[in-house]
Design brief:
With about 210 residues, this protein is of the alpha/beta class. The protein has a single domain (about 5-205), classed as 3-Layer(aba) Sandwich (Rossmann fold), CATH 3.40.50.10320. About 45% of the residues are buried. It has helices spanning about 15-30, 55-65, 90-100, 115-130, 155-165, 180-195, and strands spanning about 5-15, 35-40, 75, 105-110, 135-140, 150-155, 200-205. Helices cover about 40% and strands about 20% of the residues.
């Protein structure tokens, strides 16, 4: 166990990190790690018309609190969806500021194989910011069909249920197929079979400089 208990979660949009690694984050919080969550956009332009444009800011607070993120460690930026490439330097500067301020032991980010334009920018800038830290990318299979995991975290049933409860707070996103509980369970079951666990979340190692047994 490291003396530094800070974990940095980098989520391009509200909900991405919970979808990709919500159960793992809850597991880390139970072990005593402090979770710091950055969402670079609350996706106001993509919110369904029957919801308030700011709804995702409310939903992400409720969602991340369930997996162990204290609201004071949740930061939501207002970068425009699908236009992150216009703000690369500002995004990089934010990440570097977090690196210097909290010195995270593990950083979770999106996959280099993710084809969503914002997710791709976030991964590339994460690699620039955290060249020498423990950096793992989480799985969003609808955007990263060539995801090749090489690090698996065993997930208990109680941790899976926390992930489901966390995602249930995104009422505005329930129309999306990847929010379906059966889909989420099948993904965790599939990765469990690959790793010889009952349930697992899967990651790609970008950097690994210390033992990060989870």
């Amino acid at each position: 166990m490291t003396k530094n208990k800070n974990i940095l979660i980098i989520s391009p949009h509200t909900d991405d990190a919970e979808l990709g690694c919500g159960a793992t984050l809850y597991k880390l919080n139970k072990k005593g790690y402090k979770l710091h969550y950055i969402a670079f956009s609350a996706c106001e332009d993509s919110v369904p018309k029957n919801f308030n444009k700011n709804i995702l800011k409310t939903e992400v607070k409720k969602s991340t609190e369930i997996i162990g993120v204290n609201n004071k460690n949740l930061t939501i930026f207002n970068f425009k969806v699908r236009e992150f490439y216009k703000n690369r330097q500002e995004i990089l500067d934010i990440m570097i500021n977090y690196k210097q301020r909290i010195k995270p032991f593990i950083i979770f980010t999106t996959s280099i194989k993710d084809i969503h334009q914002d997710h791709k920018v976030i991964c590339e800038e994460s690699i620039r910011a955290f060249k020498f830290e423990n950096l793992l990318s989480y799985e969003l299979p609808w955007n990263a069909k060539n995801f090749q995991p090489n690090f698996y975290v065993e997930i208990k049933q109680s941790e899976f249920l926390k992930k489901i409860k966390s995602l249930s707070k995104y009422r505005s996103q329930k129309f999306r197929k990847y929010f379906d509980n059966d889909f989420i369970k099948s993904q965790i079951l599939f990765r469990g079979i690959q790793s010889k666990f009952n349930l697992a979340e899967a990651f790609e190692i970008i950097n690994l400089n210390n033992d990060i047994s989870i």
